[in-house]
Amino acid sequence: MSSLDAHGHEWRAGLRFPWPTPPANGEVQAVAEGVLWLRMPLPFGLDHINLYLLKHAQGWVAVDTGLNNRQTRDAWERVFEQVLGGLPLLAVICTHFHSDHVGVLGWLTERFRCPVFMSASEYQAMHQLGANNDPSSSWAFRQHYRRAGLSTEQTEALFPLLNSAHFRPQVPTSFHRLSEGSELNIGGRRWQVRIGRGHSPEHACLYCAEDQLLIAGDQVLPRITSSVCVQVTEPDANPLREWLDSIEGLRGVPDDVLVLPAHERPFFNLHLRLDQLRDHHLVHLQQLLDACTAPRSAVQLMAVLFPKVNGQFDELMALGETLAHLNYLIAQGQLGREEIDGVFRYGRTPVGAVARPVLGQL
User: Fold this and answer.
1) How far, in Å, CA of 92 to CA of 178, rounded?
2) How far apart are CA 353 and CA 335, in angstroms?
3) Which helix or strand (DSSP H or E) is residue 269 part of?
4) Does this model's pTM top 0.90?
5) Residue 355 has pLDDT above 50, yes or no
6) What is the pLDDT of residue 162?
7) In this predicted structure, what is the pLDDT of residue 300?
8) 269-298 pLDDT, tens per residue?
């Protein structure tokens, strides 16, 4: 349920949205002086990404880029002509390495010969993503999804999706490093870098204390939750622990900040949203514990958390999230796992068991 206040702001689930509707794809909405919200299309169920343009001297700084496809490049061409007023991009800041955020990064930076700013871990992960690595040749890929409970046929069916050009960003050859506490002076504003983890290795949020603006990327979203997934690259990772810790760290940002997320609409009431996100994952953790009265595979448990999955991409993300929650519970000492006929089975551990990290199966 939602309602409008006297200022025309929409209230939904305790969050306040200053703009009831987003701009159309390829168009912009001013959210502060010299800060434009730019909407770009995505060919998924989540059909858009929010980019931000920051005015600086005789040009602009872009935050994130959109996906690597013709639709994104065509939209950027219209932005160059109709929004930027003939002024160049002076730099591109990338919050993190995911393909919808860095897809045309190389194309933009080559066109304007401008620098890239991002964290070191994200830059390295982006280059790994952009490399021509065919998962169909990887025994580790097949083993990972077999252990999760997918059949050989189901795993093979993932290869065309993962080899799509959508997931192969155009990468630059150099970058300027962002770290926790780094400051960027853009258009007379000081933007402080706040690093989050769990959704990606070293996700950079940008916080302007003077104007109470937080460019949050995917670290804080207003309605959906950030994907927190275990992937084949690190099958025993505990990204949910990192993500929950990062969410708590963001409470150092004032509650009345205007949050500028990478998806959906800008909103107020940051701390309430942090509570909601934490509670969402606590519910998922309890659901898994309740479901593990007998040993079950990750695929079976995925159906508990995500009973409605539409398409292969959503299934891949849902399985990664399920594994993240399972690894968290193992690290807490609440679940154990055993490999049976090549598939990991998860079950409750005895009361009083000692928490331990997840270790690779030997």
Assistant:
1) 12
2) 9
3) none
4) yes
5) no
6) 78
7) 97
8) 999 999 999 999 999 999 999 999 999 999
Distance, in Å, from the CA atom of 345 to the CA atom of 350, rounded to the nearest integer, reads: 16
Cα–Cα dist 203/173, whole Å: 20
Confidence of residue 362 (pLDDT cuts 50, 70, 90): very low
CA distances from 91 to 60, 74, 137, 181 (A): 7, 20, 37, 19
Residues sharing a CB contact under 8 Å with residue 343, sequence separation 6 or more, in sequence order? 146, 147, 148, 149, 297
| Angle, CA 119 vertex, CA 101 and CA 179 arms, to 5° | 135
- For 192-210, b/e burial (b = at least 16 CB within 10 A) is bbbbbbbbbbbbbbbbbee
| Residues 6+ away with beta carbon under 8 Å from 25 | 39, 40, 41, 48, 75
Q: Name the CATH code of domain 286-348 (choices 1.20.1730.10, 1.10.10.10, 3.40.50.2000, 3.20.20.300).
A: 1.10.10.10
Other Cβ atoms less than 10 A from the Cβ of 108: the count is 23
Q: For residues 166 and 69, is the Cβ–Cβ distance under 8 A?
A: yes
Helix, strand or coil for residue 204? Answer: strand
CA distances from 134 to 130, 156, 165, 167, 260 (A): 11, 12, 12, 12, 35
Q: Could you tell me the fold of the domain covering 2-133+169-281?
A: Metallo-beta-lactamase; Chain A (3.60.15)
CA triple 326-143-305, angle to 5 deg: 30
Look at residue 129 in the predicted model and tell me its pLDDT. Answer: 78
Q: Tell whether the model's pLDDT for residue 8 goes beyond 80.
A: no
Angle at 243 between CA 117 and CA 142, to 5 degrees: 90
Decide: 199 and 228 in contact? Cβ < 8 Å: yes
Instruction: Specify whether the CB–CB gap between 196 and 243 falls below 8 A.
Output: yes
Can you give the C-alpha Rg of the chain in angstroms? 21
